Amino acid sequence: MIKYATIVLSFALVAQLDRVSGYEPEGQRFESSPVRCEASRCDFLRIERHPLFLIECFPSGPLANNTYVLVSAGEAVVIDPGPSCEKEVCSFLSEELLSLKAIWITHSHLDHFAGCKKLVDTFHVPVAISALDAPNLEQPGKDKIDLWIKCEAVTPTFLLRDKDSLSCGESIWTVIHTPGHSPGSCCFYNAEENALFSGDTLFRGTYGRCDFPFSDSHLMAESLHKLSLLPEETVVYPGHGPSTTIGREKSWMIKIQEK
Ligand SMILES: [Fe+2]
Description:
Elements (H helix, E strand, L loop, with lengths): L1 H14 L21 H4 L6 E3 L4 E7 L4 E8 L2 E5 L6 H10 L3 E6 L11 H8 L3 E4 L3 H5 L19 E3 L4 E4 L2 E7 L8 E5 L4 E5 L2 E2 L2 E2 L9 H12 L6 E4 L5 E2 H13 L1
Parallel strand pairs: 4-5, 5-6, 6-7, 11-14
Antiparallel strand pairs: 1-2, 2-3, 3-4, 8-9, 9-10, 10-11, 12-13, 14-15
Helix pairs in contact: 6-7
Bound molecules: fe (ii) ion.
């Protein structure tokens, strides 16, 4: 019985590792996160179709990381390859006859790149990550966060900076530097379709934790302000949990900036 309770408790702690307590759409604070992995599993998008691209989501690993495959005009990009995502991602690419063009990583926490090395070894594609988060990709554990997931080092090919452009097929994505959760956290924004991959900066009802060794809550507030200025119809695809929109989250994002 004690053993069972310990397992349940540790899962609950791990499940909320990347998020703070949540907010209702009106901006009222929850005491506990409304976006726990257990609850959100049944609420995940799987495929989202935009005119210019489609997005397939593969929740993977103990934190149900959202590994995304972005597809446009026959090209595919994997965003944040989570733990053990390789099998599902490879099957999808093979079934859809897609060529993998690149891997983009929003930030260098282990759960967002634990599946990267196997994909790189299989497809020999370039890897892009912010220059500020690259060191932990090349040397996992350098950010002083425990290596709680088996993870192999990866050498990035492109070092991203704010306002850089990335392409996948016919879609162009702007890099938005959103430090706070980690120094080099980035979001990828497509202005034509108003879509945003937000990593662990913005979730439905909450934002990423800022108590890691290299986190910064003031920078997080500035990053949330930056994102709150995007069009309200922008669809947000976060690193964990269900998708949302800027309009749905805007009220609490503004309150955080005012603190
Ligand atoms: Fe994270």
